[in-house]
Amino acid sequence: MFIGKLAKATGVSVPTIRYYETLGLLKPVKRTRGGFRVYDEHAVLMLRFIRHAQRLGFSLKEVRQVLRVWRRTGNPCPTIHTLVVQRLAQLDEWLQSLMALRERLQHLAQVMETREGIDSSNNICPFIMAMEPLSTEFSYLPPEWRKQRKRSRKRRKTSPLTDWWWS
């Protein structure tokens, strides 16, 4: 099947399939004389695995690692187990940090509701400055809390000839 049919069969966009190819996650079976990619049913299974693994929290780097082990040995389960144990430890760390943050914010909300301990000496918000911060910063924040970075558009390069032509 061609890449468009593969995209429809899996619900993965054509650019994403091409991106997975550049990462080495997926390979076309062959190419036609015209250079079109041709895939088989194995590619459908691969894409479903990749997407499912991503939904379970695996990064594309980890998926590539698992697929390399699978291609080499045929049994990626020990590798997956190691990755899962590492991820669980990381999640436990995040949960502890989030619970500590939740307790601080609850306390801050209570203090602000009762308006106790106001000292407005050149502070933007005296309640914030009176609250003891956490000892560590978060290594993980939910996507909606992260800064949204706008990608800068690359300016098209022009030459003196094209500038002269269009002016």
Keywords for this entry:
2 domains; Multidrug-efflux Transporter Regulator, Chain: A, Domain 2; 2 strands; 2% strand; two-stranded antiparallel ribbon; 167 residues; 58% helix; mainly alpha; 7 helices
Detailed description of the structure:
The protein is mostly helical. It has 2 domains: 3-75, Multidrug-efflux Transporter Regulator, Chain: A, Domain 2; 78-143. It is built from 7 helices and 2 strands; from the N terminus they run ααββααααα. It has helices spanning 3-10, 14-23, 41-55, 60-73, 77-114, 126-130, 160-166; strands at 30-31, 37-38. The chain has a two-stranded antiparallel sheet with strand order 1-2. α4 (60-73) runs antiparallel to α5 (77-114). The longest helix is centred in the middle third of the chain and has 38 residues, at 77-114.
